[in-house]
Amino acid sequence: MTRERLPEYLKRPLIDTEKTRTVRKILKTKCLNTVCENARCPNKNECYTKNTATFLIMGNVCTRNCRYCNIGCARPEPLDENEPKHIAEAVLALGLKYSVITSVTRDDLPDGGAGHFARCIKEIRTLTPGVKIEILTPDFKGDKSAMDIIIKAHPEVFNHNIETVERLFPTARPQAVYKRSLEVLKYVKNNSDITTKSGLMVGLGESFEEIESTLSDLKSAGCDIVTMGQYIQPSKAHLPVQKYYTPEEFEDLKKLAEKCGIKHYQIGPLVRSSYNAAELHI
Question: Buried-most residue among 116, 158, 160, 173 (CB within 10 A)?
Fold first, then answer.
């Protein structure tokens, strides 16, 4: 199959300013990973100019091999016990009012890393009490005790991405389960007052009807916020793009979200789950 050229509206200019260099320096000094770098996010430089980044904790290799993701799958290193403190120090140094933390999937850990998320939240609140915190987590294999740790830590927003439609899970997310991801969102919503959030990519071969079904499922799971953006193939080794949605089609997807009862959403070609997260916080 011939690869389609990346449409112009999906291209972002390189930005190299004193502010972006400052962000990179702070992250490097604290030995921190970001999903911005590791997942090759197209919005990276724009976010850096706003003095923000999405922290990637628990290493930069994953125990799962999702076929759309640029983060490598390998045997992970032991947890860095100083990482929560370094995250908090970076939040302070960057002057953040809203902090987003995500992680690789750590199926090797008994709690899936839930305790490490909780320690990061605690350290940030100790150093910068006024900062709002959003976390984007793996599914913890559906372990309710792990989710209880997260609920007790009480971030302002709990995000777990559904990523794609149910039919494409075996192809795109072979080690994940569609209904399990919905149950994770539902459990947090039913057992806390935490705002819940999820996101998905389009362009992997899903139909409009399948997107509608997914949005309806997220609504039924009590999901408060939904993000949706265009899948961009990180390399030739990853799943190819089946379709580039036009800006007009993204407008149709916004209408579809509203039809499904999703009141808070961010939908557009370059939208990613953490993009302008503070602006979408409810």
Answer: 158
